[in-house]
Each structure stands twice: as structure tokens, then as C-alpha cells.
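[job 4471] stage=fold_predict status=RUNNING
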Amino acid sequence: MYCECVNVSVCCLSTCDLSCRLIGEESAAAAGAIPALDAAMPTWVVDPIDGTQNFVHGLPLSCVSIGLCVGGRPTLGVVYDPHREELFIGVAEQAAAGGTQIII
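[job 4471] inference complete, writing C-alpha cells
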């Protein structure tokens, strides 16, 4: 399951060019704080296993969470639940399924 979560993260980011920044849970923990966003550089924010404790204890309550900030603002959010094989995508200022706007 862990490999599947990481693979989703890698596949989603494989089109990102080298001018993008990446903030992961581990890098934020090592720094002791969440790094500030740089408005001049698109930034991917990734948590390959959101719900780590649930994952470790075998509870099907974890997912892959990926976000993209452009201009210092969230513009894209992707959440994949490998336990239910569900994918959720939110794009800033765009309607979701059913015409309901999701604010990210």
C-alpha cells in the first residue's frame, strides 16, 4: 500500500519541471516548521501518506494528499484514497462535479 501511495505522488509530479519547489511532510518536520511559500516559484505540497498513524496500524483511513500553490496561493488539490480507490480533485475558482464550487 505504501508503494501505491508513493507511486501516485510520483506520477502526479512527473510532469513538473525543475523550476518547481517541493515541500513534503518530512522536509517540514526536519526544518521544524512549514516553509514559507515563494510567490515567484510554483510549489508542490505533498503528503504521500496523510494519516500515517492510521496507515501504520492497518486502519483504512489514510490517503495521498498533493497540492499546488502558484503565486503563493493554492490552485490545485488532489486527494487519492487507495483503500476506496477514490480520487478527488479541486481547482481554484472552478466548479466541481454537480456545479458546486470548492474553495481551496
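[job 4471] summary: The longest strand covers residues 73-81.
[job 4471] exit 0
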